[in-house]
Every structure is written in structure tokens, then in C-alpha cells.
């Protein structure tokens, strides 16, 4: 059985990301309306990034935890925090950039490098996840005598 701590952590993370996604959608609608903004802005994708990268992915990680017990791997907690930090970094910079766009302010070039780091952090999290997943898929195949 998967550890209750890992399942709870993933469930709470998914729930928090759901709340962030819903709030981001409402904020986008109301903030752009309040500023009579009709152009394109990165603020419009904060909602979907939160729901997909945050809520949906944590729910998928929860399923893999239930089925393959990937939480037993010593790297699981590291993966969890790296991935969610990368998602938070990405969503945070999207929101920051989007708000500046609505307000008619430029996004400083010096921050562009930092904005892209969120995707790099998420990628590191995904690589770690796939390393863990590969180990537990192989273990499952051996346990269930599946050759291909």
C-alpha cells in the first residue's frame, strides 16, 4: 500500500493547485475588465497552467503512487518538491508578466532569464519522475512476469 503521507501530500498539492487555478481564472477576467484591457496577456494562461501543471499532474502522480508505489523511492520527496517549485515558479512569473502587460508596463529583459527557469526546474522534476517511474515499472513487470 502506498504511504498515506505521500498520498495526502499529493492530494493537498492538487487541491491547492485547483484553488490557484480557479482564483487565477477569476482574477484574469476581473483584472482585465477593471483595466479595460482587450489585448493578449500571459495572464490568460495562468489558469490553465495551474490546472494542468499543478492539479492534473499531481493527481496523475497520485495514481502512479497508488498503482506502482513510487513514493517508496528515496528520491520521491525530492521529485515532489522540485516539480511543484518549478510549477509555482512558472505560474508566478506568468502572473507577474501578465499583470505588467495589462498595466502597460514592459517586462524587464533581466527577468526573462528568471522566468524561463521555471520550465527548467519543471523539466528537472520530470526527469527525476521518469527515472523513478522507470524503476517501478520494471519492478512491476518482474513481479507480474511481463516480458514486453
Automatic annotation (TrEMBL):
Top-level lineage group: Bacteria
SUPFAM superfamilies per UniProt: Cytochrome c oxidase subunit I-like (SSF81442)
Keywords: Membrane, Transmembrane, Transmembrane helix
InterPro entries: Cyt_c_oxase-like_su1_sf, DUF2871
Pfam families in the cross-refs: DUF2871
Keyword Nucleus included in the entry's annotation: no
Membrane-traversing stretches: 48-68, 80-99, 111-133
Identification of the protein by name: DUF2871 domain-containing protein
